[in-house]
Amino acid sequence: MSKLKNLTSSLFYKFFFSYLLVFLIPFIIISAIFYNNSVNSLREEVVHSNVNKLELVRDLTDSHMNQLSEIAAKISFDERLTPYMVSNPYSDKIAIEELQRYHINSSIAESLLLHYRADDHVYTTSGIGTIDNYINNVYSFTEQDRQAFTNTLYVANQPVIQSIMLAGNQEKQKKMIAYTFPVPVDNPFPLGTVTFMVKEKTINSLINPLLGEFDGNVYIFSEDNTLLTSINHGERVQTETIIDMADSSDVISKDINGSNYSLISMQSDVNGWKYVTAMPTAQFYGSIADLRTSIILIVTLIAFIGLSFTIYLSIKQYRPIHSLFQYLKTKHPVQNTSLSREDELGRIRHTFDSIVENSEKLQEKVNIQQPFVRDQLLMNILKGEADNDRNLFKELDIIFHDHAFYVLIVSFGKKQERNKQAVHKDELIPLLQKVSNSYGTGYGVELIHDNGIGMIVNLTNEEESAEKIQQHFLIQLKEHICEHTQLSPTIGVGKIYRELSLVNRSFIEASAAVEFPVALKNDVIYFDDISEMGESKAWYPVNEQAKFIQSLKQGDEKVAKETLDKMIQSISEKKMSIYLVKCMCYDIINLIIKTVYEMKLDLSIKAVNELADFHSIQQLETNVQALIKGICQEVNTRKDNQHVMIKEKLLEYIHKEYTSNQLSLENAAERLQVSVSFLSKFMKEETGFTFTQYVWNLRMGEVKRQLVETNLSIKEIVLNIGYLDVANFIRKFKNTEGLTPGQYRKQTVEKN
């Protein structure tokens, strides 16, 4: 019991670890991919978001600088602001008003001043004054910035940006940005300059949203790396550290003052200004850290769910197998100790093997039945009763092409000669099951009642006439028979028909050819040749006469009536005396009576009288047709009875001789005067068992009876039933019953 538990536990853990492995491998791979993709995607999104913000600041600043450039260009070409107009005492007031109007159009400039180099005065929105007054009293430039600014006013021939520190009490406006343009713009020899004064905090208001509530630094450098402005939230990063990385276009992570910073920089295409942000990396990628935590929690949850589901699946998968194992253990106790040690799957595998074995046995039975179906189908075609089922033909390996068909019969002689030919006949029947050559294909079937083999031949070669192809096929068939047997049988050949449904006519004709007297001398006789042998033009055709006789013998009512109609028509068409016509009619009657007596059928005097009592050929035909129907019905009934008689004789012989060691299929076939192949198929078809199986069942029943009812030894009992190999019988008995004969006797006696 403990071993079974161990096996059960082992099988369960096999399922568990298998499902766990199936879950973990894709789970780990997918989780890693998901983690990397999510983190990288968010990292890219964070970088992209900060880059977009910096681009927005750059574009907004460029827009304002472009606005100042446009105002400078307009001032350059304004006629009211020419050197003459501003220096004229009568028009300088107009110039001041015009500067005020331009100043209003600028959204970031605190003030603007216009200076012509031929004059020491500057013109502002407030009025006219000297340069010294402007830089000393209006804004209080530092000494260093005064000189640089004054120099710019006199020598600048292109836009110049200057960062100017204010002195004095201007702490809240301690820094200004002066943006100076030459006037006229783009002139290599300008007459003066126009300068826009912008507060640093105005620029800072543009870049302040870039940081929001986060710590960090934002810097704007001029094209020559001069710091124009900056904002700082938290710890300030030195400008010298930042300027070295201002030219990089990638996100850079660098350790600054013991802290890790992420830097983004970009340059304006308009004025060459450089924009740089420096944020603590932990803050820069703060959302990524949150994402990592979320992903770890989600992955842990999924892992827990997956583990639970793995346990559930393992139990669910194991439970039906265990139930099936318990069922097999109860219903099918294992006798084999090696099998009893196997686990549940091993036991189920053993059961499956048994199912496969039984299936193979069933397939074997189907294969055994196939020849019976084939022979029955061919016989129905010969009788004109088969449907043209192409699918059934294909399953039975029978392939007919719609070209030409005829029937030939290989006859083995009369009944008294059967024993002499039996051995060779059994050799020939398998050879003629299917004969194929370049001229056609023939399918043979044994004719039990006619002691021969009927073959339906399908001609497939159309290069020559059908008659020549027929002759070539027969020549090769005879060579085939002579090559494999010592027989030289008589072959009757029917006429060629173009439809498979008319093959029964050819069968009747072949039967007539075989029984025609000349067939005793020739090995091949064609039905068409019968008409050439002694036929008189004053009489009806001899071949029709032979066909009529054979159709009666075969019980084919349809062909018999067709042939009778041709014979009557032949008589009607001939111009002869009434007496000769009457003689020919009586000859037909005589032909019928002679055939009936040859077949040993009962024909009453009344029927003969009614047949002979006719007043016209048409009345004779009517009387004969009525008689044909009765004769054919009786012939077919006799065939069925003969079939039953063969079965009764066979079973009687087996039940009488099954205890004899001389009993064999060959001896039974010889006794019943049929071929071994026919008897083998007949036995299986009628009883459902092969000859050997049927005899074995009888012998098994007799052995069981003697084991229970007698005290004879097992050896004596085995010899009594005609089995000479005692050891082999005991082995087969055990395979069948699961017990040896001795165990069976003991068990049965104990029960009784």
Automatic annotation (TrEMBL):
The chain crosses the membrane at residues 12-35, 295-315. GO terms for molecular function: DNA-binding transcription factor activity; sequence-specific DNA binding. Gene3D superfamilies: Homeodomain-like. Keywords: DNA-binding, Membrane, Transcription, Transcription regulation, Transmembrane, Transmembrane helix. It comes from the Bacteria. The lineage of its organism: Bacteria, Bacillati, Bacillota, Bacilli, Bacillales. SMART domains: HTH_ARAC. This is Helix-turn-helix domain-containing protein. Residues 648-747 form the HTH araC/xylS-type domain.
